[in-house]
Amino acid sequence: MPLRHPATRQHAKRVAYATACRRLVVAGALAALPLAGCSLGLTDLPAIPHHVDDDPPLARTYRSNLASALQKPGAIFQKPDRAGPFEISEPRHTLHLTGRAWLVCLKTEAWRQPVTYALFMKGNRVVDYRAAVWTDRCDEQTYESLVMN
């Protein structure tokens, strides 16, 4: 390999450094590109088209079914007798991991702290539940007391 002049080696290093910097700038710009949509106000997602007639109907006895599920130890609460009074919202359609379902928000007290849960129902039974999150919009709902059997 022929020996290079020290100035030529410095020039090669500068060119390599400049190329690496350009690549970082391009990568950063490409990474920030998806965030540009948020800053443009494009945060409203289109509604999921569906026909309400295609959804399975919620049983008319969903309140009593829900009350009996809440009283079973381990079904939703490990010790349901320690939970405070229950309040539920009206059911509404939602898209769940298992497909279309009904969302019912549940307010209660657990360990003397107010908590809100999102209950997902199909037909007569609760198929899933979790602590309510912002997208459930449980804080916007009106609630009624749930009469326990």
What's this entry about, in short?
With 149 residues, this protein is α+β, with helices and mostly antiparallel strands. It has helices at 6-39, 62-71; strands at 87-89, 92-96, 99-110, 113-122, 125-131, 143-145.
What does this structure look like?
This protein has helices at residues 6-39, 62-71, and strands at residues 87-89, 92-96, 99-110, 113-122, 125-131, 143-145. It has 149 residues and is an alpha+beta fold. The longest helix is centred in the N-terminal third of the chain and has 34 residues, at 6-39.
The coarse silhouette is elongated
Instruction: Give the proportion of residues in helices.
Output: 25-40%
Write down the Rg.
Answer: 28 Å
Strands, count: 6
Q: How much is the average pLDDT?
A: 76
H-E string? HHEEEEEE
Distance between the termini: 91 Å
Keywords:
149 residues, 27% strand, 6-stranded antiparallel sheet, elongated, 2 domains, single chain
List the helices and strands and how they pair.
Layout (H helix, E strand, L loop, with lengths): L5 H34 L22 H10 L15 E3 L2 E5 L2 E12 L2 E10 L2 E7 L11 E3 L4
Antiparallel strand pairs: 1-3, 1-6, 2-3, 3-4, 4-5
